[in-house]
Design goal:
With 262 residues, the chain is mainly alpha-helical. The chain is 63% helix and 7% strand. A hairpin with a 2-residue loop joins strand 6 and strand 7. Helix 2 packs antiparallel against helix 4, helix 4 runs antiparallel to helix 5 and helix 7 runs antiparallel to helix 8. The radius of gyration is 19 Å and the shape is globular. It starts with a strand and ends with a helix.
């Protein structure tokens, strides 16, 4: 059984450090370290990559928050100050990836830097960063699934339970399912696909999108707080599109790489 100790890691006088923020910072630091190593391995200038990565992180944070807010406008219209309370959770990975590509990728494109190679370098960092960051949902008691009696059940305190499950105590720890899946995706990208796909720039990033989205589609079905577009779970719709893009795009890029040197 899992039970959150609470969202606050350290509280000293006026200073409060929350687990969510600490885990997000850790995932970013680990991701940048991995990207630096892979850039050196590929013979690229890590400093140029870092400039794009810093903008990608900023774009990712803004995009992840705006995406989440856009699908919860009723709530944030009533309490607009909460839009900036990112430490309380509410970051959507699909919006984060889009925002990161737009800002970081846009910068790299304008500077004539290898955008697709940069995306490939970012892919394992994204997967591992998500595996770490998902534990922020555990401490915040959010992003959990439907009620369950399984041995690995997650206790949710009454004030965090959805109204329709107010009498239930234990729920699926979907944060854990996704964290473990993201860790598996990281392993597949680094030890199975990276060398095989390296000649086809952009293919590893598409593989990341497809693999992550396959797992996200499954875990999203259990979530009690899914972002909705009418009767459709938004994350599942985006996941289907991402898996399709990977299935079509990876073989296409591999074929093109056999004709045109990368």
């Amino acid at each position: 059984m899992f039970r959150s100790p609470g969202p606050v890691a350290v509280h000293i006088g006026p200073v409060t450090l929350r687990w969510y923020g600490l885990l997000m910072a850790t995932s970013m630091a680990v991701g940048l370290w991995l990207a630096h190593r892979d850039a050196r391995r590929r013979g690229l200038d890590p400093e140029s990559l870092f400039k794009a990565a810093e903008l990608a992180l900023l774009g990712g944070l803004v995009g992840a928050r705006l995406y989440y807010v856009a699908f919860n406008l009723d709530y944030y219209a009533r309490v607009p100050a909460k839009i900036f309370a990112v430490w309380e959770g509410g970051l959507a990975i699909h919006g984060g990836v889009l925002g990161g590509i737009l800002l970081g990728g846009g910068y790299a494109w304008l500077k004539n830097l290898p955008v697709r190679t940069y995306l490939d370098i970012a892919a394992p960092s994204l997967a591992l960063g998500q595996a770490i960051g998902r534990w922020g949902n555990f401490f915040n008691e959010e992003a959990f699934g439907t009620p369950t009696g399984l041995p690995w059940k997650l206790f949710i305190s009454p004030d965090h339970r959805p109204l329709e499950h107010a009498q239930a105590e234990f729920f699926h720890p979907t944060f854990l399912y996704e964290s473990l899946w993201d860790l598996a995706v990281f392993g597949l990208l680094v030890w199975v696909f990276r060398d095989r796909l390296e000649r086809a720039r952009g293919a590893l990033f598409l593989a990341y999108l497809g693999l992550y989205s396959f797992g996200r589609f499954l875990t999203e079905a259990l979530r009690t707080d899914a972002l909705m577009l009418g009767p459709i779970r938004v994350a599942q719709l985006v996941s289907v599109l991402a898996v399709a893009a990977a299935i079509i795009g990876v073989p296409l890029l591999l074929r093109r790489s056999q004709v045109t040197p990368s």
